[in-house]
Each structure stands twice: as C-alpha cells, then as structure tokens.
Design a protein that fits this description.
GO terms for molecular function: nuclease activity. One of its GO terms (cellular component) is cytosol. The chain is α+β, with helices and mostly antiparallel strands. The chain has four helices and four strands, in the order ββαβαβαα. The protein has a single domain, classed as Nucleotidyltransferase, domain 5 (2-Layer Sandwich), CATH 3.30.420.140. It has a two-stranded antiparallel ribbon with strand order 1-2. It has a two-stranded parallel sheet with strand order 3-4. Helix 2 links the parallel strand 3 and strand 4. Helix 1 crosses helix 2 and helix 3 crosses helix 4. The longest helix has 16 residues. The radius of gyration is 15 Å and the shape is globular.
Length: about 130
C-alpha cells in the first residue's frame, strides 16, 4: 500500500490462486476507505491481506506505520479480518513475472501484480498443497 496507489488482488473461491484485480488511486483516506468498502461489498472476501513495507533489516519503519494507521481506519469501517504480510521484494517479483509473460513495460503499473504476489504467498502458506492420487 503506497502513498499514491493501492494494488488489489483477489483469490479464487478455493483460495488457491491469487490474481491482480485493480489499482486504486489513493486520494484522501475517506475516499480510499470508501473505494475499498465497495470492493469488499462486491467481492465479499473472508479477510484482507495487507502488505506491510517492512525495512530490509526487518524493522517497522515510518511507511509501515502509515499502513498500520490506515488499516486501523479500514478495520473501523469493515467487518472483515485484516492480516499483515511482509511485502518486501513483492514488486520485484511482480515485475519479473510481468517481464516473463511479456507484459512488462514502463507504462504498466505493477501495484496489483505485487498485491497478487503478497496474497499468493499468504495462500501458499495457509493452504498446504494437496494431491489426489
């Protein structure tokens, strides 16, 4: 979650695959909360996974504090669980995936793709793979 843009991703109903959904312009907090409320109403997720910009040394810096403060506003208006995930390197991974798929150029925003990386990491960690013989 940045100061200007918020990438949004959504998982499939089985919580196996995360996909980029939309990029929200972050104007003021009230409008941004309203936009996220609309997405939650439309898609009815079980929870929100929010990327937390942890510093490379693992500490919570000023940007992470901003994210936590904004998430507090969200939790006041939504009846949805919020989980934080370390978002370090998510943009780099998203750019690599976009480049590998031929979709990477300077005019394409990668915020939603980075959100999908963060969500996919969460899904992979919480849903162990299963195999049908």
């Amino acid at each position: 979650m940045g100061d200007k843009w918020i990438g949004v991703a959504l998982s499939d109903p089985l919580r196996i695959l995360a996909s980029p959904l939309v990029i929200l312009r972050r104007d003021d907090d009230a409008k941004t909360v309203e936009n996220i409320e609309a997405l939650v109403k439309t898609h009815q997720p079980d929870l929100l996974v929010i990327g937390l910009p942890v510093s490379l040394n693992g500490t919570i810096g000023p940007q992470a504090e901003k994210v936590k403060a904004f998430s507090g506003l969200l939790s006041q208006s939504l009846n949805t669980e919020i989980i934080f995930r370390d978002e370090r390197f998510s943009t780099d991974e998203a750019r690599r995936k976009m480049n590998d798929s031929g979709k990477n150029n300077k005019t394409v925003r990668d915020d939603a793709a980075a959100a999908a990386v963060i969500l996919q990491d969460y899904l992979d960690e919480t849903n162990p793979p299963c195999f049908q013989p």
